[in-house]
Design goal:
Blueprint lengths: L1 H4 L11 H16 L4 H18 L4 H18 L1 H6 L5 E5 L2 E4 H26 L3 H10 L5 H30 L11 H29 L17 H21 L12
Antiparallel strand pairs: 1-2
Helix pairs in contact: 2-6, 2-10, 3-6, 3-10, 4-6, 7-8
Length: 263
Amino acid sequence: MLETIKNYSTFIDKANPLTKILLAAILFATVIFIHNPNVLFHLTILMLIALLCLSGVKIKYLVMLLIFIFISGFISSLYMIFYGEGTETLFRYGIIHITDESFVRGLHITMRGVILSLFGALVIFTTKITDVFYALMIQLKVKPKYAYSFMAAIRMVPIIVSEYFQLRQARKVRSALINKKHISGFKSLKSTIVTLLSQSIRRAYRLGIAMESKGFSDGSRTYFYKTSLSRYDLYLMLIIAAAIITAVQIGTVITPFDSTDAR
């Protein structure tokens, strides 16, 4: 699916998935402990540039994603903006009290979420789900039965969604022959869940038989796909480290916000 929305690939596509996950955890911890909104502002811009240049995704898809990310991030901070504390009042109406301090704190929370969302989107657009599980098995020595189980479960999700829509369309076609109580309300939900669950159980049983017939075991095995650490992982780590250091340095020179501590 990723190939249909991408124009080109970058070196991040070749980086180890575990490196990306580790960097996401480090970035999360770093963003949590940065209280200067100016630093977060510049880090947001740098992460946005990284997503636009290194994801390889077509611009129209990125624009839709960015609109969703920024709107969601702003909505998540409204409680802090509307009901925060402060001394310099910007707007007041009823229980809504927007102050200069609460507005900065709200934007601070927004930028935290946006930074993590932008990097998360970059990881998703440049990582195949199969590579994640192979990296877990090869680098972290996760047992194949667990990794393949999760891989198979994720592969089943699109099939279950497709079956749900097929079931829904079939009910619409046969709606004239079915009592309304069976196609609406709780009974409809119950029958839908039972149908999808029974189909999933049968599919999982067939998959288990197929894997057993092909000699699948939990012992030592070789892998068709290989994942390893390479220079591309170093490049990615250097880029993230450079982005954080650059944001910290620029944040002390170019200060869009008067506050340097949003706590």
